[in-house]
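Reopening this one. Same input as before:
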Amino acid sequence: MARIFPFRAYRYDASRFDLARVLTQPYDKITPVMQERYYALDAHNLVRIEKGREEPDDSPQSNVYTRAAATLDSWVRDGVLLQDAAPALYACSQEFIVPGSEQHRTRRGLVALLGLEDYSAGVVFRHEYTHTHARTDRLETLRHTRAHTGQLLMLYDDSGAPVTSLLATAMRQAPGSEFADEFGVVHRLWPIHDLEAIQFLVAAMADRKLLIGDGHHRYEVSLAYRNECRARGDGSSPDAPHEKTLVALFALNDSGVLVLPTHRTVGGLSGFNFSAFRKSLAGIFDWYAYPFSDDGERAAALAEFRHDLAARAKGEAARRAFGVYAGGGVFYLFVLRQDADLDALLDGVPETQRALDVVLLHRLLLERRLEMTAEAVEHERNIHYHRDAAEALSAVDSGAAQIAFLLNPVSARQVFDLALAGNVLPQKSTDFYPKLLSGLATYRLDG
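Same output, byte for byte:
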């Protein structure tokens, strides 16, 4: 069963600090440029804990992890971070504009502690594998700080909407905090202290299956640290602090749950020839060309190309398709032929995964036509990932990549159903937007 718990969160003293200047994006989204900007914004910006600078004279006694722990302790001691007086669950929302559009959405969820469960328990499900380096970094941070500053994004099926209804009631009140981040996303948080409401939410979540949307590394680090604590004999109670992690839970049918596509570029392939690559797919894909000869024609061709790609994901025109660009003044739409034999083409791939464009791209185009090994893809050799389609196309124009593949997004429901059926997808198959900010509500294991 899914066990959620209220907790006494540590939050920035809003009377002293502008939250927009002290909170950060999750650690894995902080680029070197963002890291420097966060450092410059405020002396109490969470980047010092979330993703601190490495120094030339770092040692086992003084390093990014020891500094993070010392900084957190000093901020609690000095009242920079204040602990809520009573345990609470926290309703949260993110109001945003869908990237590349003018569409407004609001995602609504619940911040809580979650009792850790091994994947084998059938309570928490993953949809992608993790990488050793990121796990090692996060584990060291947790060992030293004994705190979770960021929430894992998790999805659940709220059939009948009991949780959604209660959260909507809580959100009729003035939020406990409200601010806009650097991407224009408005974040709001409502502490829920009412005991009856807390008990209702705890009971309502008990029979839910949970999918990790964002935060696979942090969840597995939480499991690893729990196991370390158990091995040391730090307490065997299922309610012990190390038996829990910090999550934000969102209903699958929430209108604000958005998955963006992650596009791919490939480069550094010896002997790559686009014409030969295209011909190798004859009989599997039909292709349509969108040529251009100058900037004006390029803009018109790109608009038509992207419109047609999006149209393939819905309605009567729905067909499996990729946008493909290898330079040469032409965009291509590769559309899977209706008579393509996926059983033969994707032999060995579970039937449930064959319906996903990202699986078709990786297994057929990348591995079997471009001869990229699964190991090379896993370690990001010859492949790069882009949220912004324009960035992927520019990589080809600049010569940084040989070919770009643009994808339509997978739906949250597809990911949920596949994960619960035991499927793990290629890395970066999903990009849940917007990201949950770190530092909005911190869970310290020591109090």
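So the earlier flakiness isn't reproducible anymore. For the record, The mean pLDDT is 93.
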